[in-house]
Amino acid sequence: MLMGLLVLAVIGSWELYLRSTGIPLDYDDGKELWSDKRAKVYDDPVKTTVFIGSSRIKFDLDIATWEKMTGREAVQLSIVGSTPMPILRDLGNDTNFRGKLVVDVTEPLFFNNDSAEVQKPDVYVAYYKHRTPAQKASFAINHLLESRLLFLDQDAFSLNAELDKKVKLYNRPGVFVFPDFPDDFGRTTFERQSYMTKKFVADTSLQHQVQNIWLFLIHSGGHDAAPKEDPVPIVLRSVQNAVNKIRARGGEVVFTRTPSSGPFRAGEEHVFPRQAMWDPLLASTHSMGYYFADNPATAHFDCPEWSHLAPADAILYTKALINELPPSFVTSK
Amino acid sequence: MVFNSYTFIAFFVIVLILHNLPFSWKVKKINLLLASYIFYAAWNPPFILLLWLSTVVDYFVGKALYTQTNKHKKRGLLVISLIGNLGMLCFFKYGSFLLENFVHLVQLLGIHYQPAKPNIILPAGISFYTFTTLCYTIDMYKKESRPVRSLLDFSLFVTFFPHLVAGPIVRPPQLVPQFETPRTASRRQLMEGLFLLSVGLFMKVVLADGMLAGTADAVFNSADVLPGLDAWAGSLAFAGQIFFDFAGYSTCAIGVALCLGFVLPQNFRFPYAATSLSDFWRRWHITLSSWLRDYLYIPLGGNRQGRWRTYLNLMITMLLGGLWHGANWTFVAWGGLHGLYLWIEKFFRDRKEKASPMPVTAAAMVLPAYGRKTGVFVSGTTGELMEEPVAHPGKEVVLPTGIFNTRLKGLPAALFVFFLVNITWVFFRAGTFAQAGHLLTAMAGFSHGAHPLLKTLSMVKVGVVVLLLLITQWLLRNTKLTDVAYHLPWWLTGLIWSFMVILVILSQESSGSFIYFQF
To answer: Which value, in Å, is the radius of gyration of the alpha carbons in chain A?
Structure first.
């Protein structure tokens, strides 16, 4: 009795406190949610478009706008901080997939064969393939709870997340410590769309915090040993192979390059020039591609933290994307 | 399904309600059996066929073994059961391993043979339920217990969901009689069961997954040369993780069964408070240790065939015990290292006994009344591997009057045993000998050009949790959790219980599996 009351009081108070902060509800963007969406790629290809990529397309594609304008469901399979190549290969090898696929390219991640970049998508794909009935049932129950309780947010409010945020200890020199993203930077919907909170869009100090993380990553990436073999031809061959398989079954594939800005964009153009990456990608796969800078409606976007669009711009970008994609990707008849 | 999942909570609530409705005992048992099949099928439905096969074959073979009087036919039946059970285990668990070693062997002989890589999925819990059914048929062969009356009771004995996937490994006399008469949990049993379930979840979710798994994984998966501090933190983290993970599962299993009115055997008795290696094996995975003692070590001859044969039997038992854990030579090395420790321990004990007219083993006694009540025996050093302590009338050890053992005598020995066990965990967790070698080298302080890996917070978590683990185990080493809970003031028990449940909810950590599922 005492135990029940105490547990209710503490958890209830914690939930009420979090609600009072105004932070919106968030879904854990893990392999369970990803697998739930992965299972949707077999839905009617006339009513479904599948998106794979890294974090940018998760922020930049406004799913509500997409579904309202096209009447098609957007299946978001992109995974933050990783290359979509394992997912593309998986879809290529899946003989039941015959759908419409949009592949978003973030060059530093896409043209990267490093095991760290493929680890997460590999884990997600493996989890999807071996999901047990018990895991599916747990996901359904979790969805019911997660849709109602703010504190059920592992990345932001779990015990370890709180310890990481609140207990700051000196680390030995040489220990790699990944900087913390502010909670307001990326919240996730059940459809796996990521978005910045209003607070983040308004608060330049939070934006600077994320900009500093990009600078940190660029700086630490510069110290990595050069790969033994140029990854670009390897990636291109792998893409070509997967795309050909999908097309042979009647599926369709297009590529997009979502916006970036500021020093991030300048760095990308310098290290990953369009002529050496994007153009060969389209040429080798004989694909249609939509590069944001080619369209005046999207060329001017200024990303608050240089790499992802704010929610209002995501709506505009989505509208422009719908206009640029082939009709078979955006019409439901 | 796993205990630390929403599916299990929903499942368990339904089972608990059904078990307390006014159905006949037979209907309740059928409910429990169906629930157990659902529990198992929730992983991989086709593997339930294996479970059925094992159950049906062993039920009928067991019955025939008990009634058969012809010696040859009896042996034939036993061979059928052994081939059925061990054959299934060998194929699913050791198939790839055996093939891999065969390929290495023929390549050593200069023959080039490269077969296709087999894609064998290990059915959950196969090692556990195989041992459960195996002990039944062996008992029937030796007529050590009576055959189970009905297929329903036998199926429930094999499949009863709390112990099915990762133990405790139950023997027929421990569980079958409980199916013969109607039972539901008393209020006290229900409370104890829920308390143990909470403790088990706390151990698994908060401590194993939340506090230790990340550090252990980071260190054991690192390809870099690590400083000694990181290597020690990683190995200590794994020592804590494996205990909290497995003992957490067992505690959940015992708690769940108790909520339904059934008593399962204890599987852990504060093993890191062991003051000798043989004491450790009386406290760690007790049901496996006693299984190996009764069905392997003693049939091999135990300590009845001379000193050297005892050493050999000891080593064979530990090596096979290691292999039971996984199809990898590192597990065999883990078992071998424990065997070696036990050898050394036995050697010195034998020498001491020879030199002293009063055997040291006089300590191996049990207080019958206390032991019966709590299932806890005073640890002894009989020199016999994993044997139950033997009562020596007139030489009973006086237990501390309080519930906690605050005496420090034996603490240095316990710490030394923990150190030795910690070394063995490196082989248990490392995927290869090279990886184990890297880590042991770093732990020994030889790590030139090392890069620090762990954040200070991670090391603090490991330090605090492992220190508290050792202190708690030492203080409670002669008692049981539920006794402690009843001994404390009700409000303090309530506070501790609440604290654990709150942290389970807040930690939101779950690996979705238990380490011992892979065995």
So the answer is: 21
pLDDT tens-digit map of A172-231 = 888 888 888 888 898 999 999 999 999 999 999 999 999 999 888 877 765 555 666 677
The pair of structure tokens assigned to B500 is: 């654990």
What is the rounded distance in angstroms from the CA atom of residue B258 to the CA atom of residue B189? Answer: 6
Question: How far is the alpha carbon of A177 from chain B, nearest alpha carbon, in Å?
Answer: 7
pLDDT computed for residue A91 by the predictor:
95
**Chain B touched by A145 (CB under 8 Å):** yes
Mean pLDDT value across chain B: 84
Residue type, B344: I
Single out the residue of B98, B496, B486 nearest to residue B323, CA to CA: B98
Interface test with B, best of A8, A132, A153, A177 (most B CBs within 10 A): A132
Q: What is the pLDDT of residues B105-157, one digit of tens each?
A: 888 888 877 777 767 677 778 888 888 888 899 999 888 888 998 999 999 99
Residues B234-276: pLDDT tens digits? 999 999 999 999 999 999 999 999 999 999 999 999 999 999 9
- Phi then psi for residue A103, to 5 deg, are -110, 115
pLDDT at position A309 is 95
pLDDT (0 to 100) of residue B373:
37
Return the active site residues of B.
Answer: 325
Residues of B with a Cβ under 8 Å from any A Cβ are 1-2, 5-8, 10, 41-45, 206, 210, 214, 451-457, 460-461, 490-491, 494-495, 497-498, 501-503, 505-509, 512
Q: State the Cα–Cα distance between residues A191 and A61, nearest whole angstrom.
A: 11
Contact (CB, 8 A) for A306 and A314: no
- Residue A282: which H helix or E strand, with range? helix A278-285
d(CA A24, CA A185): 12
Chain B contact probe: residue of A14, A27, A150, A160 with most B CBs at under 10 A = A160
How many beta carbons lie within 10 A of that of residue A35, not counting itself?
20
E strand residue ranges, B332-398: none
pTM: 0.84
Dump pLDDT digits (tens) for B306-355: 888 899 999 999 999 999 888 889 999 999 999 999 999 988 888 887 77
- In chain A, residues 13-72 whose CB comes closer than 8 Å to chain B: 14
Closest C-alpha among B214, B213, B223, B230 to residue B442: B230
DSSP letter assigned to residue B91? I
